[in-house]
Specification:
This protein is an alpha+beta fold. It has a single domain, classed as ATP-grasp fold, B domain (D-amino Acid Aminotransferase, Chain A, domain 1). The strands form three sheets. Strands 3, 4, 7, 8, 9 and 10 form a six-stranded antiparallel beta sheet that branches. Strands 1-2 form a two-stranded antiparallel sheet. A hairpin with a 2-residue loop joins strand 5 and strand 6. Helix 1 packs parallel to helix 7 and helix 4 packs across helix 5. The radius of gyration is 18 Å and the shape is globular. 31% of the residues are buried.
Length: 247
Amino acid sequence: PNPIPGKGEVLTRMSAFWFEKMGSIIPNHLVSADPDEYPAACAPYRGVLRGRSMLVKKAKPLPVECVVRGYLSGSGWKDYRQGKSVSGITLPAGLKESSRLPQPLFTPSTKAPDGEHDLPISREEMARIIGADLTDRVIQAGIAVYERAVDIADKAGIIIADTKMEFGLFDGELILIDELLTPDSSRFWPKDDYEEGRSQKSFDKQFLRDYLLAIKWDQKPPAPVLPLEIIEKTAEKYREALNRLVR
């Protein structure tokens, strides 16, 4: 129930930054992030909208979640420990927590209603949901976006371990929608502190996840009230990711 101060501005600025960087790979839904360019009906609210909003194309979202992983962490690490595969893709033996993968993995999942958990699916199941051709195009675009982001983030001293992307159709064209490569949708690790075989420090909501795990929250509403220290540290981590990437 506690808002994270400045989070809206961080997610907006970072998404706009990445949408611009990925324009040559795939179009996106962003029309403008400048309230002065919004429709006249928005004019009375420019002060509130500035820095924390976007004018976007109304696309039809694809009914799947699209995750690209470059490192073994989170649910991917959990799945690997249970059977050395992630989303039906067999990986080499001997990998550790936070190991860099031989190549990026595209691991789709269902898009669950609010309050429920997404469930991993195979590429074949994804193809049955949205069609084989569209599946191939999404996978190709998703991995290309991830690889370009990794190169950009590396120069800023950040490892992008994995990220979730949203795709949609606008006038029949495949585009990126929602947010892109933010601390809410990605795992950002400090490059200078990376060490294989353990969990990593992060510039994302993993810090908040770790706190909720420590207090043994059962993930059922209502969410626990967060201590001020946790709120401030989470906000600080989001700002650091932004400041490193968007200079």
